[in-house]
Specification:
about 850 residues; eight-stranded mixed beta sheet
Length: about 850
């Protein structure tokens, strides 16, 4: 019974131990009010530890206290933290650092600080841990960069309140290396006179040892003093260099160098929340790694013993945290890859320190140009800082040369935008030989990405090209002889022919009535006019006389139009063109395909992944030297086709048919490894984000519209000429009417009266006046007058006037002859009396 009770008791104890409440660990933070970022960072670090389950089911809590910059406030806040049973204290304030460190050492509570430890001042507490690089590290990296630049003069600009360098050691090391050093203490707000003094004395390399919030004002005043230019280099010692806004000096050409605890490439793998925290200050990264180090130490210690809560108070100076030394020792055993690199302690500081060297690039912003590393064996700079800075200085001085005889508008827009953005200039040359030595060649319209020696210019075979993204698309066309007279065109020809026939007939009929010459000779009805035009079309004669100029004009116009119509229709009946489609072209082996010799299109068809292009490439039987030569061949033969690009359609007449068979991409290319490839790719993506990729037809506004001048259009023009000729004949008839009226007007009457009489005759379609006919039928009043008229007529003294034609067997005089004879007799009597 006793054994059973003991077993039950042991089981209950084991059950209580294995199922106890998860351990809650509290950490404290002593911060100043301006360090609000530290509160966010600590809370984010704790949440990250809890989410990852580094301490299994153990929860970490944060207790923060904000203090003023005074020893009393720091002492009170630290004691309050200790009474809350915190396992460790985190701080980031330099002025109250000694008080926190001394209390942590007294009660054996680990203390994590974000400050830069100084070798000139001993650590205030052996229980303080510093994950930030020391002032010795910053001094050493600054010295090695200055020596790597190979300068002979260095200006050291410092701010006594915020400087972090060990100035005396730095100056001594530089002078020992033979470098002249000029030290300036920025005690005034306006430092332009001091900076101008540096420029006048030739100190073009400056070490700027000021806080991050003073960097931008310093650069702005340096630009005003003329110190910030393409010849100067600045080494900024602040670890918050990456968070300073240096946009004002981005295109100044100056080399601006700084340091960072965080690898710039690491930010690509972080969340947006982590990235935002790390941008605030380097202290945020140090705090994140400090909390991680604390959690790893607790985890390591819990493998050895149960971690007890600290029970200390400032009221009891003799009581200490029993597990404090064991916990501090566990921090020395753990290591991990943190935000600031590999974290492993050696005493109170890091065993290894890596500082990333950054430089301000006009295009890329902050660019990594090197790495400074310090371990047990020593320190060294990895990377050629001077060469990288010189390359950055060259930015903005690049001169680009676009090799193209006729570049697209889109290409010039992209290249101009990218060049201006990067402070460079470009020009267009037609051949490779025209490029200057300092210019960077940019080739337009290469075949494919990475293809060597595929441009229209000659390149060295051992050098290859890197191509950009496609800038545009060039349409590909099959061109062959076009049947310009189709079914609808035949109908148009017939309707046009009938229309001009009607217009010519009407014009001929009206002009024969209007013209007095044609009206007296032989006026035509509409039926007569149609018969005359039809006879002219059939090359047959007719029994009508064309006396007036207007009648002859309209007849000539009709003969020209009708003759061309007959010739046009006869030609296309005897020489029909072949109407093709793409399917027929691909299947008909009798068709011959040609292309322009040594053209980009010819090369592209060989490497194109499109099966249609591959089939056409295999069908190419010959090539031609010039486009005009190929078009002449197509015009003379019906079974010849040529392959052209959309940009070449301007030279193709509209007597040719076109079939689009896809397109090919067009690139910009440059020497392999050129930095301009990525810049141009960025410009192309930016340009195409608002515009879709265009074809060459859209870029050059080439539209494959119907012919502007071909057989049918010329036929339409000739039909218009016939219509205009018909209208001109009417105007000529009116001119003949006026001319006749003026010429036949007697002295005793006006030409206007004569014109009026002719108009009346025209309206009645008569050649003489009816009143004259009536007078001719009247008998004369005296027989002697009739006898005298007869004698006058036979004497031959009368004035002969033009009379209408009469038949030879007609004895009776006409009415017109009688009237003319009577008028001549009256004039004879009047002259006799005079």
């Amino acid at each position: 019974m006793r054994i059973k009770i003991i077993i039950i008791f042991l089981l209950s104890v084991l059950r209580q131990i294995s199922g106890r409440t998860p351990l809650s660990i509290r950490i404290g933070g002593v911060l100043e009010p301006q360090e609000r970022f530290a509160e966010t960072t600590l809370q984010a670090a704790v949440d990250n530890i809890d989410q990852k389950g580094i301490l299994n089911e153990t929860r970490i809590d944060v207790y923060l206290k904000y203090v003023e910059n005074s020893p009393v406030s720091a002492y009170t806040a630290t004691c309050d933290q200790l009474e809350r049973s915190v396992y460790s204290i985190f701080s980031s304030t330099q002025d109250i650092q000694p008080i926190i460190s001394s209390l942590a050492f007294q009660f054996k509570i680990p203390h994590f600080s974000t400050q830069l430890p100084s070798s000139s001042r001993p650590f205030s507490s052996p229980f303080s841990i510093y994950l930030a690089p020391s002032q010795w590290d910053i001094t050493e990296i600054t010295l090695e960069i200055a020596l790597n630049l190979g300068v002979s003069k260095v200006g050291l600009v410092s701010h006594s309140t915020t400087s972090i360098l060990e100035t005396a050691r730095l100056v001594e090391a530089l002078q020992s290396a033979g470098v002249d050093v000029l030290v300036l203490d920025l005690a005034e707000k306006d430092v332009r006179p001091d900076l101008a003094q540096l420029r006048r004395k030739g100190f073009y390399t400056c070490i700027v040892d000021v806080a991050d919030y003073l960097i931008k004002p310093f650069i702005e005043q340096g630009m005003q003093a003329g110190l910030v230019n393409s010849e100067t280099t600045f080494i900024l010692t602040s670890l918050d260099f990456s968070g300073v806004n240096l946009e004002v000096a981005r295109f100044s050409g100056a080399g601006i160098i700084g340091f960072s605890l965080i690898d710039p490439e690491l930010t690509y793998n972080l969340t947006q929340n982590e990235t935002d925290l790390l941008r605030q200050s380097y202290k945020a990264a140090v705090l994140l790694d400090s909390v991680r180090l604390f959690s790893e130490g607790i985890k390591d210690l819990s493998k050895i013993t149960d971690v007890e809560n600290p029970r200390v108070s400032c009221q009891n100076q003799t009581q200490i945290y029993e597990d404090g030394e064991a916990l501090f020792a566990s921090f020395q055993r753990v290591s991990f890859q943190g935000y600031t690199g590999m974290v492993q302690l050696q005493g109170q500081t890091r065993e290894d320190v890596n500082l990333h060297i950054l430089a301000l690039h006009p295009d890329l912003g902050l660019k990594k140009i090197g790495l400074w590393s310090r371990d047990r064996r020593g320190s060294a700079v990895i990377g050629d800082i001077k060469e990288n800075i010189d390359q950055i200085r060259m930015f903005g001085k690049d001169r680009l040369a676009l090799i193209s005889r006729n570049p697209d508008l889109e290409v010039e827009t992209v290249l101009k935008t990218v060049a201006e953005r990067h402070g460079s200039v470009y020009r267009t040359v037609s051949t490779l030989e025209k490029i200057l030595q300092e210019e960077i060649p940019i080739y337009w319209d290469t075949i494919s990405q990475g293809s060597p020696n595929l441009t229209t210019e000659s390149l060295n075979p051992e050098k290859e090209l890197d191509s950009t993204l496609p800038v545009s698309l060039s349409d590909i066309y099959l061109v062959f002889k076009k049947d310009s007279i189709g079914g609808l065109d035949w109908l148009k020809c017939i309707l046009g022919f009938l229309f001009i026939l009607l217009c010519s007939s009407l014009s001929l009929s009206f002009s024969s009535r209007i013209s007095p010459y044609q009206r007296r000779a032989n006026p035509y009805s509409i039926q007569d006019s149609i018969w005359i035009n039809v006879c002219g079309l059939l090359f047959r004669s007719w029994d009508f006389r064309l006396q007036g100029v207007s009648s002859r004009l309209v007849s000539i116009v009709w003969w020209v139009f009708s003759s061309f119509t007959v010739l046009l229709l006869s030609y296309h009946l005897l020489n029909p063109a072949v109407n093709l489609d793409l399917t027929h072209i691909l299947q008909d082996p009798n068709l011959s395909i040609q292309t322009l010799e040594h053209s980009q299109l010819h090369q592209y068809l060989k490497v194109s992944p499109d099966p249609v292009h591959q089939h056409l490439s295999s069908r190419v039987q010959s090539s031609f030297q010039r486009l005009s030569q190929g078009l002449e061949t197509v015009s003379s033969q019906n079974n010849i086709l040529i392959i052209l690009e959309g940009s070449q359609l301007l030279e193709v007449g509209c007597e040719f048919e076109r079939i689009k068979v896809g397109s090919r991409p067009r690139y910009l290319s440059m020497r392999r490894g050129s930095i301009w490839r990525e810049r141009l790719n960025h410009g192309i993506r930016t340009y195409q984000s608002t515009r879709s990729i265009q074809t060459s037809d859209q870029i050059q506004d080439i539209k494959t519209q119907p012919c502007q001048i071909d057989d049918m259009n010329f036929y339409y023009y000739l039909a218009g000429f016939g219509l205009v000729g018909s209208l001109l004949s009417l105007l000529f008839a009116l001119g003949e009417l006026v001319f006749f009226s003026v010429r036949r007007t007697r002295k005793s009457e006006s030409w206007w009266k004569r014109l009026t009489q002719e108009l009346k005759l025209m309206m009645r379609n008569e050649s003489t006046d009816e009143k004259l006919v009536q007078l001719s039928n009247l008998e004369f009043s005296s027989p002697s007058r009739n006898e005298n008229l007869a004698k006058f007529s036979s004497s031959g003294e009368k004035q002969r006037s033009p009379t209408p034609d009469k038949d030879d067997d007609e004895d009776e005089p006409s009415v017109t002859e009688k009237l003319i004879l009577e008028k001549a007799y009256d004039e004879h009597l009047e002259n006799s009396r005079l």
